[in-house]
Amino acid sequence: MPGKLTLGYPSARTLRKSLPLVVLAVVVVALIALPLYSSAHASAFSINNSLQNAASLGLLALGVGLTMIIGEFDLSSLGVYAIGGMIAVKYGADFPVMGMLLALALAVVVGGVQGWIIARTEISSVPLTLGGYIILLGASHLVSNSQTLAYANYDVGMWLDGIFGFVLSPRIAIVLGIFVLTAAFMGWTQLGREIRAVGGDRRASRASGVQVDRIIVGIFIASAFLSALGGALFALSSAAAKPDLGLSPFIFAVTAVLLGGVSLAGGRGGAMGIVVGVVSLSLLETLFSLLGTPIYMVNVIRGALLLVVVVIEAPDLRRALITVRRAKSA
Amino acid sequence: MSKTAGNKSKALRAVLLAAVAAVLSTTAHADGSLAGKTVTLVTCGTSNPWCKVFNDQITSKLKDAGVKVNVLENDFDAVLEVQQMNEAISQQPDLIMVEPADDKTLVGSAKKAKAAGVPVLYMDSPADPAIMDDIAFQVIADNVALGRFAGQNIIDGLRELGLKKANVIVISGTKGSTMVQDRQRGFEEVMATAPEYKVIDVQDGNWDPVLSGNIAQQLFAKYQSQGGIQAVRAEADYTAIPVIQAARQAGMKVGVAEGGLIVSGTNCTKAGIDSIRAGEMYGTATEDAFTQGEYTVDAALKFLRGEKVEKTIVVPEYRVTKATLGQYSEVCSKG
After folding, report:
1. Which of A23, A269, B261, B298 is deepest in the core (most CB within 10 A)?
2. pLDDT at site A295
3. Across-strand partners of B231?
């Protein structure tokens, strides 16, 4: 019996573990083979553009992903992303770093307050951060007077997006660097292991002396910080900020995180998985854009992919697979 | 023997084929067929009535010439437009045609397109001086003239009412675009000649009919106790009509005949022409979507055929009032 169980278990896990890399490989092959089945081809610029988009949403995905790893869900990160960009543009006209620091300071406060409430009251993070999202969106409209603000200092954005090494840019490098640092931190430090433990079994980690509350507050601060930084970099690079960016950045981020092997139940996944998810998804969108696919079709594909990922992630599926295997072997 | 005959017939066939090909290619040239050329149109969404006519005019004429057109739409959304410009550059078309949501925001995009070797046709609003060397060419409206016409409409209307002083408001298009700023400049220039009429408020209606109507409603209420509002300059006919509706809802009289509110539009449409005919809207001006689209697409086709195109093409504009209605009602009614 136990033998059969372990037989069924790894293959579901293998499927899940290999999914991000499989998707990445399929998309890369499809991009390279573009001229074989269409009149389009992937240029260095289109790959660079795809990575720019990945950089725009990568930090948001990392923020959401970190909260998911500890078994929480930070909806407010989308609001922080929007207002972070708005503050960076509005107050960074003369000194870009000033605007950026202001945005990050606000994020630390927002993340700290939300994390503290969640840790103290053990309230569910979904309704709480939904409230946070709505408040931040309102604040973003207030700051911008409900208008799209242009950033006249467009040299900053052009520097951030300046291409080097064929497909890279300073912004891509910054975002990638943050991913690498986060992965190193999560993998090689005691705290990193504790963070994952909190997501796996909170009560057990608390019993074994892990400072669970501090970790929750810290992760929410990190989530808000990363989202604000991502929003600010995005706004500076597009030389404009909009008070409400809609839901699509968040849908992208969550799909990428799930695709990258982070579990909705918590305790699993890491920064490297998330970055693979973000890049695969971004390249996939570039593929459809190069093929001239209408936006509504791209939305259908996005939705379908999210569905596939969630189904593969589903704990029930694992159980169902095991049952099927058992039935077969019986 | 049979071999040489075979060779001969082969040679003959080759010559014939070449002749046919030559004839075909010359006829293709004569037709100006642009098969194989691609254009990416980054433009405002068809939910905007002006943009719908403008986009249709451009895409249908391009397609008729055999050009493959990719359309990326946004509702004057500067952030989305920057992403769409990146997407457009990635597609490596023969020409990107862009209707700007914000002229400052597009500076980076135009420079990127230049670096990637993709020519850009800037439409409607004059490009920022910083990118004049980066874009291929621009087809723009004479926006200062359009602003002046609106000023003349308002002054003439108020004088017809015999008003010695009046409060005027402006509900503009998206302020971040140079065309809106140019129009306002032309408008203020003319309004300065009639200092008895004061421009007391300028609000950004983002080329949005619903938003423009809402703003009018709020401003009518706001200034009720401060002498009221006697005239409104709306940035387009399709935003002027909601302003008139808002005035009616507020219980105001509209038009010279009723001795009420003077409203001027621009970017004339059929609804605007009907409103002037009914005596509600005082006047408007061209920059109708049909003509603007026609000038733009003709220039684009010339460019794609490799003909020389001027760097800046300014579409001439005309003032439309009850007196000149007959002359412009047809072209305006296409939108």
Report:
1. B261
2. 74
3. B168, B262
d(CA A124, CA A128): 7
Contact A107, A113 (CB under 8 A): no
- Encode pLDDT of A6-20 as tens digits: 444 556 667 777 878
Q: Where are the alpha helices (DSSP H) in chain B?
A: 2-31, 49-64, 78-90, 106-115, 143-160, 178-191, 209-223, 237-249, 270-277, 289-304, 325-332
Q: Could you tell me the two tokens for A330?
A: 């019986």
**ipTM, two decimals:** 0.72
Round to whole Å and give the CA distance between B153 and B167. Answer: 15
Q: DSSP states of A55-89 as a string?
A: HHHHHHHHHHHHHHHTT---THHHHHHHHHHHHHH
pLDDT of residue B31 exceeding 60, the answer is: no
Phi-psi bin for B206: left (phi > 0), alpha (psi -120 to 50), beta? left
- Residues of chain A with pLDDT below 50 are 1-8
* φ/ψ of residue A77, rounded to 5: -60, -30
Report the CATH number of the B38-141+289-316 domain. Answer: 3.40.50.2300
Q: Any chain A CB within 8 A of the CB of B71?
A: no
Chain B positions touching A286 (Cβ under 8 A) are 90
Q: Which residues are CB-contacts of B176 (< 8 A; sequence separation ≥ 6)? A: A148, A150, B78, B101, B102, B103, B104, B105
Closest residue in A to B105 (Cα–Cα): A239
Residue type, A142: L
- Contact (CB, 8 A) for B89 and B112: yes
Using an 8 Å CB-CB cutoff, list chain B residues near A147.
204
Per the CB < 8 A criterion, the answer to whether B289 and B297 are in contact is: no
CA–CA gap between residue A79 and residue A87 (Å, rounded): 12
Give me the residue spans of the domains in chain A: 49-274
Is A150 within 8 Å of B204 when comparing Cβ atoms? Answer: no
Tens-digit pLDDT profile for residues A57-66 = 999 999 999 9
Contact B90 A147 (CB under 8 A): no
Put residue B38 in one of left, alpha, beta given phi > 0 → left and psi -120 to 50 → alpha.
Answer: beta
How far is B251 from A54, CA to CA, in rounded Å? 53
User: Count H helices, E strands: chain A?
Assistant: 15, 2
